[in-house]
């Protein structure tokens, strides 16, 4: 029978306190056993935060029999390394057996990894890299607010990680958006790996939160059950519009005399002889050997949870057709499509949400903002927080668009997007101002690495539309399709792509399909493979070559991840290839094509045109010319190749 | 004759104030003309920070005739977009002519890009991505402290960028290390792109700095020359150990009635008719047409500064030989080599500096710290700040090692490293705990993207040593070699690589050469190309295959950027290839090899072994086996390939 504490009560009964003490003893034993058995792991912080975890799980809304129950309160463990503590408490709460945990902890293929992951029943979010958890919790809390739900979001943080600047970004955001359904918990043991937090990087965490406008509840003793209960009760009932943090003074290694306040136990387990001593101190039996034998057996995998699959019903709305004479930028086409999605889906409770970072106008989110003010979030110049928040929000049955310049949406927050990738999120990153097409703002603002960066992840698709029509279809596609999607575009106005007869290529019959490229032109001598902002130049090159009696194909690779292997090989079998991209030449499409050729054992000449040095500050057309990416240079390259 | 203000005086004379007013008028004219001529750029903030810039340059130590004079005070423009203001003031100070600036601003190939770059005489650092400038200035200030130099470092910041968390990291660091030679200047115009800073993301910047322990000088009127002079004098004479920031209330678009306090002028220039009005208001002649004609001529390039080339004399010290029986980790070999470098170079004023983020012990910097406490910097869990600071410090005649886990040294701070790349820095990033070799800590801590990330830059080499001996030589090499270098390694102990006869392969005769691979074994049937932590498994596979009568070569590609093309092609001509790496298979060595094959037109079967999904939490050997990276799987792959 799992302990449940009534948040409406003023204090705990002595029976409840005794029960918590008994639970603590069982959990402390598991923390020590599990880390010694694994010969690695983090016992110190697990013991300092244990009492907080016990009271929190006894008070929050959750159901071990239904770990993903929608009404559950969310618990984000920003300190993913205290997995021994979290798993011990989840076992205590009946999410799985002690046997499963102790037999599998930190073993390959087991359901109990070294940092908490959502494959473990009861774990909400994969964490490990410090400083991101609060942003994740903010994303969940904001999602519940948008949907008018009363779920609370708990976020357990360490004190050392408060050195990360991203936390300040998250604090500011939570205050601005009045997230009083968010409850921060800080395990203030004053120790981090290299020693005292005061020596490593002095700061007052209490001051930090109050300066950021949060309500701070400070507990002199983070191991006092009644104090924890009363603090969480107060925070749980908070409707002030001000987010609350409970900062609890705790003791690293709490409960084991020789471990207390020892920084080294942050990340090192006890040796068997020390364990014996510790278990004796706890007054529990030392059954280490029994578990050592059990760990000789194959790991049990029946507790492993599958990734979340819930995703809202989304109407793609009516596609917009831009006629052949239209001259606009893909950004505007994105903005129009996003507005269309809002009109089709945000009547009543919003389904589509949008986040930007002080660039609403540049990324064309203004129309969406106007239509769905309750679903648009201005995160300020705080990209690290915004990206992490967007990832979490996108897992709460909301379609979450995150838009800013490419350099900020990809290069600056690569590791935040990586964590969303781990977490099987549903992010829709639509980045504008990519490549040399940014022009005069110069190299710091020219993102030429987006494909090279996303190639390092496993669960992000990468789409680069060639014109406003394809942008419209792709934006509607990603809204209706679960998972992480990146859509990138340049800054400048770009012509509508047409067929040879002048008719619109991506017309209303066109359906965007990931992994399928578009044959914009069919020729016999060679193929130009391209995407994005330089596609029009490739078509112009096609024309120049045609005038010179050379017949080339132009293949538009709007879907870069996944790649259209069949079309690449088809092109390679037909003749030489030239890849053209507004991207670093050593990490973009060209190398992907080369790799496909080798994989398929098809040998054909390939010339890779791309960005070979940092771009300058000037007109895009001139920057392209400087790097051989203009129509004449492309045509010349093909001509040389065919000599 | 350039205006010089005497910092020791108590106030400005009326002549000096008149001169500043005259300078302002000339500079305001250039700001307006340059942006209208370019039809893009940022006039608003240039006008709000103009008075600060004028007084600052009149007070700081600098020499237009010798822009890189070592004794100069440094000025970092964290708001790189106010280039029109900066260039106008530099022209006023005689760094170059007004003609050069106005004729070239934002034109391709000119020396006057849209965001400030160090190709412009008088510009210290390429900036553009907000929030990094203070970390850069901190790196310079720390460098001067280490070297016992009295140079001051000015950092001009905007108010909007104070939303970036990295700034808080930099503030904390500056306070901890008592950088009273650092002078922050904040252009507090209360406007950012999307409107008022209070609406976009509320905060008190004054409170922020004082809470971080800085001395705050607030100026009600950031356009009052005497107030600016007195504030900067006070800051200039600061020896309190407390860093100072001057927060000046300014007016966006100051001086042009219809531009004042208009957010839209952050990033948009005046139209010609508005310009005429503005110039009339300034009481200066409107010679727009003359400049428009001048801009029909080719850009002038004679002002363009070459990258910094100064680099200290460094002794590599005595290489350490690890004998064939040694079993240690490359981290320890790095720590030993770093200590050796300190012993050889840090007698008296330090030449070698080291920075870590709460992981001194794990990255084995303890010995260095002990030997050179004045040259070791503990930045706390603040990687964004630490990486940016390291880049700047490495440009001040110091050899700067930045070490933490791979995920934090590369994945988390990719964009900070990118800015160091722009700036031709001399960073020595030595990252430990890379790849599945991290083991039980699991996927969030397993960096499998380092090569894939650095491929997107242009000025970083990437070296992955195979054993402690090669680690020792590579670490000594990068210390003596200018430029940005990345050295990566795993976590586990690894055997010393030997020749077939059992002798040490990387012995004392071995000299590490970038772009040269090592033939660990020579065979006739196929070649295994590998690097880093999986190299021993490849040698084991070689042995297994030898026992099976198959003769393969093992090529160790310790230098991944630059790559040893010749050896790759030599191997390809000899037979099939198998690449083996503890790295994402779609962004690592395998795709580089495939690309080289296509480039060279050499066709041979290639199998790319690498990380194909996120690793688990368990013993490295088991994680390798799961992904086919263990000796048996590698041997099996070769066998299959040769069937």
TrEMBL record, chains A, B:
Presence of keyword Electron transport: no
GO cellular component: cytoplasm
Single GO biological process annotation from the record: glyceraldehyde-3-phosphate metabolic process
Subunit composition and interactions: Homodimer.
Needed cofactors: Mn(2+); Mg(2+); thiamine diphosphate
Name of the protein: Transketolase
Pfam families according to UniProt: Transket_pyr, Transketolase_C, Transketolase_N
Domain Transketolase-like pyrimidine-binding: 328-496
NCBIfam families, A to Z: PRK05899.2-2
Family: Belongs to the transketolase family.
